[in-house]
Structure formats: structure tokens, C-alpha cells
Amino acid sequence: MAETKFENMGQRAGEQAGRTADKGKETLGNMANQAREKIGDVASAASNMAQQAASKARDTAQEWASTAQEQAGKYAGQARDMAYDAAERAGDLGRDMTNLIQRNPLPAVMIALGVGFLAAVALRRSSS
Fold this sequence. Notes:
Blueprint: H1 2-103, H2 105-127
Helix pairs in contact: 1-2
């Protein structure tokens, strides 16, 4: 009878151990599933954050490019205006000189002869 009692106890212990093992497997399976879900959530959040960062970087780069293009257009317009003004002033100076020479031809010729003489003297001294 003692043997039967020990056999029953052994059998019950084995059954209990089996149930505990089954519960352990179930618990581990649940934990693994939860871990997979958490990892998936983290990966999804990281992907969204990366997409948002890339989008923001793209938007910022486009803003900078637009600003640079506007500034370049502004400065190109200013440079064009300055060149036009300079050309206009040079044309005015040329017309003024022509009018001055036509009104006063003798002094203009005398000035030209004086400048030529000074240039010849300067060239002669620099070559000796």
C-alpha cells in the first residue's frame, strides 16, 4: 500500500510538473508575443520619426534654396541697374566731352598737345 501511495504521489507530482511546464510554456509564449509587439511598435515609431526628420530636412532645404534664389535675383537686378547707370553716365560723359571740344576746339587741341608732350617726356625718361 505504501508503494501505491508513493506511486500516486509520484504520478500526481509528474502531472503537476507537466501542468506547471505547460503554464510556463504558455507564459513564455505570451511574453515572446508581447515582446514582438513591443519591438514592432518601437520599429514603427522609429520609422515614423525618421520619415518626419527627413521631411523636415527636405522642407528646410527647399526654404533655403528659395531664399537663396530670391536673394540672387534681387542682387542680379541691382547689378543690372548699376551697370545700366554706369553705361548711361559714361555715355553722358562722352557726349559732354564731345560738346566741349566742339564749342572750344583750340583749347582742346592745346590740351591734347600738352598731354602728348608730357607722355613723350615720361616715356623717354623711363627708357633711359
